[in-house]
Amino acid sequence: MYKIIFLLISLLISSSALAQNSSQCGFIQDNDQQSLCRAIADSNPSQCGFIGDSDLQSMCRGVAGRQPSQCGFIQNSDQQSMCRAISGHEPSQCGFISNSDLQSMCRGISGRQPSQCGFIQNSDQQSMCRAIAGGQPS
Question: What is the DSSP string of 42-79?
Answer without folding.
Answer: TT-GGGGGG--SHHHHHHHHHHTTT-GGGGGG--SHHH
